[in-house]
Amino acid sequence: MRSLVKEKTRILALLLVITLAVVAFQLSRSPAKPAFPDPVFNGKSARVWARQFILDESYEAQNALQQIGAPAVPYLIPNLERRDSIFNSAYVKLWPVLPALLKSRLQPPLLSREARMRAVVAFREMGPSARQAVSALMERLRDKDATIRLHSAIALGNIGPDAKAAVPALKPFLKERHTVRVYTAIAIWKIEHNTPEALPVLEQGLQEENAKFRWAAAVFLGEMGPAAEHAIPLLEKATKAADKETASCAVQALAQISPGTVPILIETLKDPDPGMRISAAAALARLGAAATQAIPDLTALLKDPAMGSPTIMGRGFGQESVSHAAADAIAQIDPQAAAKAGAR
Fold first, then answer.
1. How many CB atoms lie within 10 A of CB 74?
2. What pTM was computed for the model?
3. Which structural domain, as residue segments, surrounds residue 277?
4. CATH value at residue 282
5. What is the rounded CA–CA span in Å between residue 144 and residue 210?
6. Residue 302 in contact with residue 328, Cβ under 8 Å?
């Protein structure tokens, strides 16, 4: 019994020492003079916004970093190299049992894996303005965490041509599982627009019917635009997939690739699934005047009250009516025809 009491006492003493060390560390810190330009956005400096995003991953902080752009990059890069110490790991375990008053005076703990991931996410969303982070992101392609490796590849792709040095390090990823292959293929294409290398990978990805992210292959083929014309037959077939997420994304991709796909989209207006009819109408709207031949079929849908929820990137999710989507498409394609048909 005494030995148990002693053991508990030792543990409590250790926790107390750690807590006091954390308090001393947090309270003794004073902001160092920035070594880089530190512009202010909405009352906070780039350094503060970077620290806030790493701590809470808030939309507000992410938007601020995007607005600040390149000057925020040096304040994020150190987080890509974060490693857990014994002290930090103990702090993470201790946090749940700390008194509320003490918690209010301290920053919550953060495992290094989360800090690295959040920095990668920040760069992923910043796009070309994160070009200074290319070398650091290339290092994360070797991270022990698979999700960090994948999102580092995506971030490099979003940076674009300025990330050309990363292409050799990205190519081995084209031989990995479906999701990694597909996202890496579009990343490489965004960097160097090497269609012969990226297109076959995405076409293969679209044909893997049981893949969880099959829809992403369709989306990325659409992002390639006319360069993906060779994939039109595969995308047409995918519009009839049982997986409606993939089918809807294939419909949108067809419109992005070529106006010559209008007949396929018109045929999709007759799909039994209302979500697919809505998706086809939205795709035709994207084509504008090039989809004039679809007006009669769209006009026929103005009386279709069915509701659907198609997957359309950038359109948001939620129920809408086929008639509303048809009216919107007619207005985008031919405003005069819309007025004549009473479409609003």
1. 18
2. 0.82
3. 227-344
4. 1.25.10.10
5. 27
6. no
